[in-house]
Amino acid sequence: MSGGWNTIESDAGVFTYLIEKLGVRDVQFEELITLEPDELRQAGQIYGVIFLFKYPTGETRSDTPKDGSFDYEAADNLFFAAQTIQNACGTQALLSVLLNKDGEVDIGKDLREFKEFTGAFPADLRGDALSNSDLIREVHNSFARSSPFIDETQRTATEEDDVYHFIAYTSINNKLYELDGLQPAPISHGDCTVSEFPDRVIPVLQRRISRYPPTEIRFNLLACVQDLRIRAREMGDMETLEAEEHKRTEWQWENALRRHNFVGFVGELLKGVVKDKLAQGGDAYENWVEEAKGKTKKRIEERQKKGFAGDDTE
């Protein structure tokens, strides 16, 4: 293997520019706030959805899924890859949608060649090919948050960690499929045309969420859709077009911040603050330190009252 895969965020801006960097054209991701078919329809032309959830560690694999049914023959007619490496599931999920929409979506030269190269492979070899793709790995890693303290390529999850997982849902050959690289095969959820997708996929997602305790709210749903600027231009909706362009600008700024290491900046800022306090003379520096200690102690006490641990970190 040529290198490790870092963790990326479930974020519409991250996913949109990640696929653009891979050569995909005229596609974007939109975060869905509610589990309503109408909200999904409002996103325009839909290719699939990516669902992020807390993975139940220690759960044993069954010969039958908790919802739907394994379709072992489907892997011969669609792109399905086993997940063979940690931290790659976000990119694997979005590729599970897009590589199955080749023809409907311009996936670009590199991804089309990858799909053709792995077309005759079984799922586990497709997963290995994905894990060892320098292009896909390097683009994926370019959207990871910069961390000067943690080597994400060496980090492994423990039972105490919260582990999150991405899976894809899309309509292929008039069937609703759940594509999860940790499962032995695609999971069929029955007949589903492209136009029926919003009405068919939402109940499936609701049933999955209902298996979690009511207090579990850590879910995220992203829709893979046609670039919303295309429809705005076709309809002459300049207000929507301007809003979408502004959103793209914000996404670019946020992605740039993710890649930047601010440790040096923070260090220089602290040096300047300390230098200023020392220059004031007298007890200014000691008073400043004591004031900071008092604020920290107060925050710890407030967190303890709310049932958090005494550590003042998130």
Summarize the structure.
With 314 residues, the chain is an alpha+beta fold.
**Which range best describes the helical content: under 10%, 10-25%, 25-40%, 40-55%, 55-70% or over 70%?**
40-55%
Number of domains: 2
Strand content: 5-15%
The radius of gyration over CA amounts to 23 Å
Largest sheet: 7 strands, antiparallel
CATH topology of the largest domain: Ubiquitin C-terminal Hydrolase UCH-l3
Which class do the helix and strand fractions yield?
alpha+beta
H and E order: HEHEEHHHHEEEHEHHHH
Give the termini separation.
34 Å
Pfam families: Peptidase_C12, UCH_C
GO molecular function: cysteine-type deubiquitinase activity
Protein name: Ubiquitin carboxyl-terminal hydrolase
InterPro entries: Papain-like_cys_pep_sf, Peptidase_C12_UCH, Peptidase_C12_UCH_sf, Ubiquitinyl_hydrolase_UCH37, UCH_C
Describe the structure.
This protein has about 325 residues and is of the alpha+beta class. It has two domains: about 10-260, Ubiquitin C-terminal Hydrolase UCH-l3, CATH 3.40.532.10; about 270-305. The chain has eleven helices and seven strands. The chain has a seven-stranded antiparallel β-sheet, with helices on both faces. The chain is globular.
